[in-house]
Amino acid sequence: MPSPSFVLSPAPPFRLDLTVWLLRRRPHNLVDRWDGETYQRVLVVQEKPVLVTVSQTGSPEAPELQVKFSGAVSGIPEAAAALEAALTRLLGLSVDLTGFYQAAGSDQRLARLIQPFRGAKPPRFPSVFEALVNAIACQQLSLIVGIHLLNRLAAEYGPGVSGPHGPIHAFPQAKDLAGADPETLRGLGFSRSKARALVDLAQTVAHGRVDLENLDALDDDQVVEHLEALRGIGRWSAEYVLLRGLGRWRIFPGDDVGARKRLQAWLDWRKPLTYPEIGRLLARWQPFGGLIYFHLLLSALAEAGHLDT
């Protein structure tokens, strides 16, 4: 029996490959998978893990996405509707970048940065919880190490399905981590403080002491204030969540060391940038600071040979 499927039509222009790489960040990411043509991820629908595959069949200017899914769902139409909503958020399908591209029309520096990556959409993690866990895992570590930690976390605690080459795991939800033993997390490679922060966060969310999705209604400063009240969350993590969890596309996480260095090179700035300098220098391009952040990441991935531009 063929897998259920449906078609999505992103706001043009759209390139699935570039957008997926903004989620993957590094080629060893096992949560967000890409084989050169197809994006694959396990999403939880109706409390069940569902394997989703997405491929682009239309051009960047007239994009269409073919979505197939498999899993023990109780209703195909209901599951398809839930997946459509999840993928629209995850892949930025409804984001209109017209203003961003228009700004580049009169700015050569910006145009040179974004032209090779036209059609890349800013992604959002499926939940603010996932964004926070990503932030905690990657704090004060290289992104390579952080992705390895997240892979192990998903393999240990994320619900899985059978894939063509073995099990594939969803990213764990708060309820999956709420009962985790911090020592088990230590065994996966997390520091003691990060293990405690992850379990504390999961318990706080799972027990209803905080509703992270309601942060959408707050302004940026209020979100930062709420997030910094959580164990293990500082300014960088809060700004990371604003961008990747809440879709605040003006946010450039200024404490991100790698992004700061890429911005410095892009601006031909001789000295290491300070946090206040980043805000001042990016002011001319606002409200597109986060989009610049994503395109600097794509530029680095292209230089590393990961992208077909």
Brief account:
It catalyses: Hydrolysis of alkylated DNA, releasing 3-methyladenine, 3-methylguanine, 7-methylguanine and 7-methyladenine. The protein has helices spanning 16-24, 76-90, 98-105, 108-114, 128-138, 143-157, 174-177, 182-188, 192-206, 220-228, 235-244, 257-266, 275-282, 289-303, and strands spanning 5-8, 33-34, 38-45, 48-56, 65-70, 160-163, 166-169.
Q: Can you characterise this structure?
A:
The structure is a single chain. The protein is an alpha+beta fold and 309 residues long. Among the domains are: 5-94, DNA-3-methyladenine glycosylase AlkA, N-terminal domain (TATA-Binding Protein), CATH 3.30.310.20; 128-244, Endonuclease III, domain 1 (Orthogonal Bundle), CATH 1.10.340. 46% of the residues lie in helices and 12% in strands. A 5-stranded antiparallel β-sheet has the order 1-5-4-3-2, covered by helices on one side. A two-stranded antiparallel ribbon has the order 6-7. A hairpin with a 3-residue loop joins strand 2 and strand 3 (38-45). The mean pLDDT is 96. It is an enzyme of class 3 (hydrolase). Residues 5-127 form the DNA-3-methyladenine glycosylase AlkA N-terminal domain. Belongs to the alkylbase DNA glycosidase AlkA family. One of its GO terms (cellular component) is protein-DNA complex. One of its GO terms (biological process) is base-excision repair, AP site formation.
